[in-house]
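The aim of this short unit is practical: by the end, you should be able to scan a pair of folded records and say something sensible about each. We start with the first protein, listed as its amino acid sequence and then its structure tokens.
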Amino acid sequence: ELNTQADGQITTLATAVSADGSVVTGYGWFPPRSQGFRWTAGEGLVKLEGFRSVFGLSADGAVVVGMGKFGQGVEACRWTRDDGAKGIGDLPGGNFYSQAKGVSDDGQRVVGSGEPEDGQPRAFLWESKSGLKDLKSVLEQEYGLAKALNGWLLSEAVGISADGMTIVGYGFNPDGQTEAWLVNLDPSTMHESATHE
């Protein structure tokens, strides 16, 4: 039990835990809205201002990702103790709606989904140096995977490995069927690294 029952909220959900188990994140109903939280034994439950839901946590517990409200709409967001919660953007066009689902151990890569002009969710990759981009476009233009990804719609990236090199998610294959996918960002294997199950 995390002793999260405070301020009269109805329920709380834990969604991620640090590698050593010392940090737990999630979200709950803190009237009048859903809000993300970060919990440690020493600090207890600390609400994360701006967050509506939390989906991912770095291995050391220092970086939290999820979604929140930051003026333009529902936006993928990233939290650190130094910077607090900040929106990381959305794909161009469409309704402003994005959500972050996973983060690398060092917090420098975040994955999730956004909504472009056609309204069909697309997987994104956010990097601290280059910002948020359509993942399929990155794979095609920067890693030479246009042929392997021909006909694919990468709907959402839901997880990223500790080293930030492997991303998993789901989408629609060239036959229009929902299918899981995995990509490895290791440059030495990029031309053969898009696989599906």
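Turning to the second protein, read its sequence before its tokens, just as you did above.
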Amino acid sequence: MDNFMELKVNAVAENEAFVRNTVAAFCAEADPSAEMIGDIKTAVSEAISNCIVHAYKNKGGVAVIKATLSGGAVHIEITDNGGGIADIEKAREAYFTTDAAGERAGIGFTIMEAFMDELRVENNAAGGLSVFMDKKLA
């Protein structure tokens, strides 16, 4: 039987570790390796951090995190109600940043891609962005 979880949090830095660790704990049911758990935690951390920094500019807002264990894999979706991304393809290029004067390296999506088996990024019709990540656990 598939298992699922849904979490709604204020997208603030104080909740980044909570989200990362909650998704990792949920995945533990599938008995993944420590390396796989580390990969998931890293990717989720990047996704929720992007939501905090880019969607809500460190001012908070709603982030919804969904995860499903199915067929030996975890499927994760992180959604915000921010402004979305004008050019997703460009934003997924390594080192692309809209914050050149800040401390952003522009490698968040690159890291998510490296640690997960699949990554999809979509603007939502009602505004905001959804990041979909899949990883085989078996």
